[in-house]
Amino acid sequence: MSKREVTSKDSGTRSNPGVEIVRSEAPSELLRELVAHLRQNRTQLREEWVVRITETRLLTAMTKEEIFAEATSVYDSYVEALETEAFEALQAYARNLSERIIPRGVETHEVVGIVLLLRDVLARSLFAKYQTDFKKLNRILDAYEPAANRIANTVAVGFVQERERVIRQQQEAIRELSTPVLQVRERLLILPIIGVIDPQRARQLTEQLLRGIRTNRAKVVVIDITGVAAMDLTVANNLVQTVEASRLLGATVIVTGLSPEIAQTLVTIGVDLGKMNTVGDLQGGIEQAERLLGYKVEKLAEPR
Amino acid sequence: MEVPILKQGAVLIATFQAALSDADLNQLRMGLVQQVVKFRSRAVIVDVTAMDVMDSFASRTLREIAHMIRLRGAETVIVGIQPDVAFAMVQLGLTLEGVATALDLEEGLAYLTQKFKNMD
Question: Domain residues for A217?
Fold first, then answer.
């Protein structure tokens, strides 16, 4: 939307104070003007920004060279986003940047901090340039501020999304790592559980075990919970359900490795331990399982 | 839909099809006991491999079948419960308590053979 009003009382001269020329530019025109300014003064403004970053002790995980390199690409992307208003491209850049710097130990507050510092540095430079023309300065800021705020927002959101993606990935990896179903003899499975069991993980464990029983035609399963520190009512019930469901598939479950704390918890909660076959430790559990399956282990010679 | 009942020596084998109505289940209950009496069977295997859902009525019927057959001096073994079905059952508290279970037909027969050997 282009507004051009030209009013002049007099086609006049500079010395005549009665002359007033008021010209309103379109927002996009203002944006172009300030982008041009930011590009022209790129080197100086970027340097100023890096100094501010170091002063406020941000990005301490990175070397000065690395900061400079990243600052350059961030600056250019920032100015380009101002110019093109292509915020999707900026968000993609932000996620890409995050992917690089998150492993370096850069925190959210640092990323938001440096983007806000850049916004300030550029704003100050606009103040300096247009300080003699207050009205123009206001119009320039009207064009600059919404765009700059949107940029800060976009970068922060991009960074946080990337962090969340990494966290989800790690959680998946941990989940898969910690619930292997292992066959140690024909018809004998071991399920060693380590760490914290939440209801979701408990459910996953049960499903995995039941499938394992069917695939391996297991008749005995030893569930070892030595590595589990604590258990609440929900998880204790899940354990009982796992034992019952395994029985429906024709398998006997032996639970081993109950810590004194968990034993106390189970007794206090009133879990029906008659439904559970428990043995002290994994070794005892495996020995009992072997007996159930009709194995006898005999020592034939001394270890070499 | 009628449930086929096969005879394998002293054992009767009833194979459930996928969708059994309540009427089918009732019919099966009577039918199985009659067959046990007629053939003087020592055991019944109920194969539920094809069942992808087990509701409380089906579960109760199976327990009743086992109970009635035990009154005739015979053993019942339920085989072929699928992992997903087993999981759903225990969550609903349908545990088929007191009824023998095995992974599949082969395991069920092996269990019975062992049991008869111990008994005789």
Answer: 182-293
